[in-house]
Design goal:
The complex is a heterodimer of chains A (112) and B (141). Chain A has 112 residues and is an alpha/beta fold. Chain A has one domain: Transcription Regulator spoIIAA, CATH 3.30.750. In chain A, strands 1-2-3-4-5 form a 5-stranded mixed sheet. In chain A, helix 1 packs parallel to helix 2. The radius of gyration of chain A is 13 Å and the shape is globular. In chain A, 39% of the residues are buried. Chain B is of the alpha+beta class and 141 residues long. Chain B has a single domain, classed as Histidine kinase-like ATPase, C-terminal domain (Heat Shock Protein 90, 2-Layer Sandwich), CATH 3.30.565. Chain B is 32% helix and 28% strand. Chain B contains 3 helices and 5 strands; from the N terminus they run βααββαββ. In chain B, strand 4 and strand 5 form a beta hairpin. The two termini of chain B are 17 Å apart. The chains are: A alpha/beta (112), B alpha+beta (141). Chains A and B meet through helix 2 and helix 3 of A and helix 1, helix 2 and helix 3 of B.
């Protein structure tokens, strides 16, 4: 998995490319937690190039949601491929973890 | 590639990448739809990851055998390991209606496997765990 990181309007934009599985999820977890510890509270994850996610990836995001909750932060995802979104739907994540179609919608969710 | 392959894996998480390659090659050979390939990939990763992460009480190298077959539109995958007796079908299902913050982190993997597969069966046989996964697969020309 490859990640890219930029910051816009106080929101950390993380782009994920490739597979979020049992071997790559710990890398994302480390990155997210280091960034949260560094004081960041708002995250928007670009999933347009995320090809694959298993429960290990879901767990990483769940841990990030819980961690961000303690600092009143928020994480949203956008541009998920259909089969990736299906995993979120099946796991019941889409109800609690905001998923958006586009970056514009994802960013707008932070101002409302 | 024949309709049946047998591939040994070591009990190391790094093997997950090779598992993905083996399954993808098998799926392409049999013209599975991308969706079916994805669901099988996730399911086998979940099972192999469980065995590697929780199956062994020692630090030695172990062999986990995957047998993949595809006949008459149905995939059968068998995963056999010599780890401690463990029937993943007895795991309690996560409550997916709970708010995320209150969720336990475990149990999601096998939950996805149940959703993606048509049938699951567990056997403890001669000191080994054997989990059999079956799935009807849509193929494409």
């Amino acid at each position: 998995m490859e990640t890219t990181e930029t910051k816009t309007q106080g929101i950390v934009m993380l782009g994920l490319k490739g597979k979020l599985d049992a071997t790559t999820s710990p890398q994302l977890q480390e990155k997210l937690f280091a960034t949260i510890v560094g004081g960041e509270k708002h995250f928007a994850i670009d999933c347009a190039q995320l090809e694959y996610i298993s429960s290990a990836g879901l767990r990483t995001l769940l841990l990030a949601v819980k961690q961000l909750r303690t600092v009143n932060g928020k994480i949203v995802l956008y541009a998920l491929k259909t089969h990736v979104k299906e995993v979120f739907d099946l796991a019941g994540f889409s109800a609690a973890l905001p998923l958006f179609g586009s970056q514009t919608e994802a960013l707008a969710s932070f101002t409302h | 590639m024949s309709a049946l392959v047998t591939v040994p894996f070591k009990n190391q998480l790094g093997e997950i990448e090779r598992l993905g390659q083996v399954v993808t090659e098998f799926a392409q050979h049999h013209h599975w739809s991308p969706q079916a390939l994805f669901e099988v990939n996730v399911s086998l990763e979940e099972i192999l990851t469980n065995v590697i992460s929780y199956g062994y009480e020692d630090n030695r190298e172990h062999e986990i055998i995957l047998r993949l077959a595809f006949t008459d539109g149905e995939m059968t995958a068998e995963i056999e390991d010599d780890g401690r007796p463990f029937n993943p079908l007895e795991m309690t299902e996560p409550d997916i209606n709970k708010p995320l913050e209150e969720r336990q982190v475990g149990g999601l993997g096998i939950y996805l496997v149940r959703k993606f597969m048509t049938n699951l069966a567990y056997q403890r046989h001669e000191g080994k765990n054997r989990l059999t996964l079956k799935k009807k697969i849509a193929t494409e020309e």
